């Protein structure tokens, strides 16, 4: 009944007898509950989302979070017996060949109340990865290419450290059909996946508007997922692409202050994505012009 | 000809034989050039603002920076002889009784390329002050009260560490005419100074829109000044209030990335200011309603 998720691009994986998440056929995702404060914190966050503060989160924002079905004892994948798991919506269950990018948002991943040891560890990672420079880091991604060649799935550790220029290239490949091995990915699905009222850019901006105002939560070390299915997107599928937020083990109270750390990183990501979108529009206009000339 | 500025709320002061800035009667502000990289960096920034990259900075944004008149040898206030000074516009020269707030923006004041020693020093200050929590810290302020009582000018070191609630109270006092010693400042000039097309909120949002897009500069340890003159504001003065950016010793290149650190902090400040503005509008509506009832 349970199996290892096929399209996990970041986080702990249930491979080689290690502890990791599993999925079932009904579209649910079972995430092992971390045994320390992190596990308690993540359950508390999901409960606060789906119960008492419900009315405080606008409906258009609620859809950015996975549906929460409670916790359940599930056989752990490391053979240690039944363990409590978070039961969540399997976010890519509806996508046949999902292209996915997992981006950890923020110029820092540590929170003010954390221990010195934890802060030192996070700060080191933040400085070694692109977190401090870009305001986010890529935790992993896969891009569907074709039935024959499958997915382009670059090394996780390498993508977390990429420079601004390299991140731009990866984002171009993320919305391309060809050119993964070259410096000229075709960006052929950029306008449909990124643009439009239901595209990724529009969703990221909706999320941003909420972050400019909400002072309930601070999301440390939390990721934004960007997902789409090329075939579905090209055939007018609805939604054409999805933006989701995941990983809430380090969510803290906002105490009347906006999450300026997350918001700054989100704005940085939006600028990157919007540049790729504009680049692709210009590129396709140029192609149209040159085709047009050819016809005359 | 030169004198110590009357209305300096933060930064080094030319008092007790120390080195600090001076002003003259023609509206110029002379800031001693720091002898190390910081001095060179600040001159380079002002030169880049006013010369070669000129066309890249939109006109509506240029007005947020002090006018730069070059550098000049001026007698240092610590008696060490003539020293190079930056010659800048004296920003409050046109204000008779200026209320001023100096706010250092950003969730961190250190830049990725800095030395370990510098980063450790800044990080400590950022964690001890409100920088990490609020995304900014108050470096100093003065609020004009009346000819008799002069200015309310709380201790600099204390205001830098204030909590979110305390910052809200200081911001209320900043736009009040009475109530500095109580928990009920009257916020009587809030709507005129903060609101409207030329008010502080509108200017901060204009600056924010630029920061969402510009990838030229990263402004570490830079301050936003908010200034107004109560009498001028109340008598329909133009401008009713001014927002300026100052202190560019640690400005670095953006390298194709937006300044997510500054932008996050600026958004946090905007949320605080807009909350005070809304609070004052609601407050004045309630007063009107209760006066109205009294008339009936």
From TrEMBL, chains A, B:
<keyword id="KW-0067">ATP-binding</keyword>
<protein>
    <recommendedName>
        <fullName>Inositol polyphosphate multikinase</fullName>
        <ecNumber>2.7.1.140</ecNumber>
        <ecNumber>2.7.1.151</ecNumber>
    </recommendedName>
</protein>
<dbReference type="Pfam" id="PF03770">
    <property type="entry name" value="IPK"/>
</dbReference>
<dbReference type="GO" id="GO:0008440">
    <property type="term" value="F:inositol-1,4,5-trisphosphate 3-kinase activity"/>
</dbReference>
<comment type="function">
    <text>Inositol phosphate kinase with a broad substrate specificity.</text>
</comment>
<dbReference type="GO" id="GO:0032958">
    <property type="term" value="P:inositol phosphate biosynthetic process"/>
</dbReference>
<dbReference type="InterPro" id="IPR005522">
    <property type="entry name" value="IPK"/>
</dbReference>
<dbReference type="GO" id="GO:0005737">
    <property type="term" value="C:cytoplasm"/>
</dbReference>
<dbReference type="GO" id="GO:0005524">
    <property type="term" value="F:ATP binding"/>
</dbReference>
<dbReference type="GO" id="GO:0051765">
    <property type="term" value="F:inositol tetrakisphosphate kinase activity"/>
</dbReference>
<dbReference type="InterPro" id="IPR038286">
    <property type="entry name" value="IPK_sf"/>
</dbReference>
<keyword id="KW-0418">Kinase</keyword>
<dbReference type="GO" id="GO:0005634">
    <property type="term" value="C:nucleus"/>
</dbReference>
<comment type="similarity">
    <text>Belongs to the inositol phosphokinase (IPK) family.</text>
</comment>
<keyword id="KW-0547">Nucleotide-binding</keyword>
<keyword id="KW-0808">Transferase</keyword>
